[in-house]
């Protein structure tokens, strides 16, 4: 079977633009010779967009907005109606471009609105997502502790402590106590070692006469300076 003139030399003539292009510039088609379609990829994309716009107009009664010209390294944000650098958009692995649809300020604003609408605020969202309890349960647990940190007793603690292995909530701590447990990796052995270390290195004031104190040396350690 002789090939048509459009296939001579591994090229084909596009029926829309009339240009001779290599076969790999045509879309795949099992119904055409050489396994390629009659329209080059550029013309095929234009036809697809025109067909989509016609279907939208017929089914939904609205016109499709024309594609926006965006320079390389930029992206359009529909919320603020502006073209910005890709660095101004959050990363998003699910998107083919690797970036989110909305710029960082608009993305954050949408997130806050969603948290307020669905959870009543960022605080409730954070507690529910990370610990599985809400602000009401937090307040109830704090009331059971007498309104103070479960370790040092400081008033109005705001940090929810939980077991990192099981996820179970243990209590409410102040910033320092919560951070301290994290630094010691929630390990009682490390905490006991820290207590033993302090007892063995901290100088003590010993009352030897009413109103008179003497510094008592620990088992190890250096004498404190005069400013101490």
What does it look like?
The chain has 228 residues and is an alpha+beta fold. The chain has 3 domains: 5-60, Wheat Germ Agglutinin (Isolectin 2), domain 1 (2-Layer Sandwich); 74-116, no CATH class; 120-186, His-Me finger endonucleases (His-Me finger endonuclease fold). The protein has 6 helices and 10 strands. The protein has a two-stranded antiparallel sheet with strand order 1-2. It has a two-stranded antiparallel sheet with strand order 3-4. A hairpin with a 6-residue loop joins strand 1 and strand 2. The chain is elongated and about 110 Å long. One of its GO terms (molecular function) is endonuclease activity. Keywords: Endonuclease, Hydrolase, Nuclease. This is Recombination endonuclease VII.
Unreliable runs, pLDDT <50, ≥5 residues?
1-5
Tell me the CATH superfamily of the largest domain: His-Me finger endonucleases
What class would the helix/strand composition place it in?
Answer: alpha+beta
Main sheet attributes: strand count, strand direction, barrel closure = 2 strands, antiparallel
Q: What is the CATH top level name of the largest domain?
A: Alpha Beta
CATH names the topology of the largest domain as His-Me finger endonuclease fold
Largest beta sheet: strand ordering: 1-2
Summarize it.
This protein has helices spanning 41-60, 104-119, 122-131, 135-144, 175-183, 188-201, and strands at 11-13, 20-22, 26-28, 36-40, 74-77, 82-85, 159-162, 169-173, 204-209, 212-216. With 228 residues, the protein is an alpha+beta fold.
């Amino acid at each position: 079977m002789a090939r048509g003139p459009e296939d001579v030399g591994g090229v084909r003539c596009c029926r829309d633009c009339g240009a001779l292009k290599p076969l790999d510039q045509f879309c795949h088609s099992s119904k055409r010779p050489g396994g390629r379609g009659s329209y080059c990829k550029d013309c095929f994309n234009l036809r697809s967009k025109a067909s989509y716009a016609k279907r939208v107009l017929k089914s939904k009664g609205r016109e499709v907005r024309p594609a926006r010209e965006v320079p390389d390294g930029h992206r359009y944000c529909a919320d603020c109606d502006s073209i910005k650098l890709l660095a101004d958009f959050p990363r998003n692995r699910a998107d083919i471009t690797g970036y989110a649809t909305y710029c960082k300020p608009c993305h954050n604003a949408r997130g806050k609105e969603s948290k307020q609408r669905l959870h009543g605020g960022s605080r409730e969202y954070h507690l529910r997502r990370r610990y599985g309890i809400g602000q009401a349960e937090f307040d109830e647990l704090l009331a059971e502790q007498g309104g103070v940190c479960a370790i040092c007793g400081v008033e109005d603690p705001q940090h929810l402590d939980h077991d990192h292995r099981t996820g179970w909530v243990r209590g409410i701590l102040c910033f320092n106590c919560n951070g301290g447990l994290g630094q010691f990796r929630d390990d009682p052995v490390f905490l006991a070692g820290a207590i033993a270390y302090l007892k063995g290195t901290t100088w003590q004031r010993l009352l030897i006469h009413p109103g008179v104190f003497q510094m008592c040396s620990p088992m190890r350690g250096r004498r404190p300076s005069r400013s101490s």
